[in-house]
Amino acid sequence: MTLEGVAQLAPVQGKARIDILDILRGLAILGIFFMNIPFEGQTALVMLNHPQIIGWSPLDQWSWAFVDVALEGTQRGVLEILFGCGLMVLAARAMRPDGPVAIADLYWRRNLWLLGFGLLDIFIFLWTGDILHIYALAALFLFPFRLLGPRVLLALGSLFALGMVVTGVPIYVERAALVAAAPVIEKKVAAHQPLTKDEQAKQKDWQKLLDRRATGGEMGKKIREMEKKGHAGGFLAYAAMNIGFYFEFMLPELGLSIAEAFCMMLIGIALWKWQVVQGGRSTRFYAILMLCCYVPGMIARAIGAHEMLSPVPIVHTAWITQEPARILVSIGHVALVNLAVRSAVGQAVLALFKAAGRTAFSLYFLQQFLAIYILFAPWGPGLFGKLSWSGLYGVALAVLVFEVVLANLWLRAFAMGPMEWAWRSLAYVRWQPFRRARAVAPEGTLAAA
Question: Residue 145 sits in which domain range?
Answer without folding.
Answer: 14-157+242-428
